[in-house]
Design goal:
Order of helices and strands: HHH
Shape: elongated
Radius of gyration: 17 Å
Number of domains: 1
Largest sheet: none
Number of helices: 3
Helix content: over 70%
Number of strands: 0
Length: about 70
């Protein structure tokens, strides 16, 4: 899916691919951490506060976790 973007195309693509992979890894880590937190008895509000979002956001995103 590469398109011509100046002379540093490879470096730009590599950097964006690295960012994409980092985001995927963070999402995986967050899901595991949320699951562990819920099983440890933390509320959605507590988890949301620790992650800097609302309890509604956490519940909506991870309601299937428990």
């Amino acid at each position: 899916m590469r398109t011509s973007v100046g002379t540093d195309g490879g470096g730009v693509y590599d950097e964006l691919a690295a960012v994409r992979e980092a985001k995927r890894e963070i999402a995986r880590r967050e899901e595991v951490a949320v699951r562990r937190a819920r099983h440890s008895g933390l509320s959605w509000a507590e988890i949301g506060t620790l992650l800097g979002v609302t309890r509604q956001t956490m519940h909506r995103k991870y309601r299937k976790v428990g």
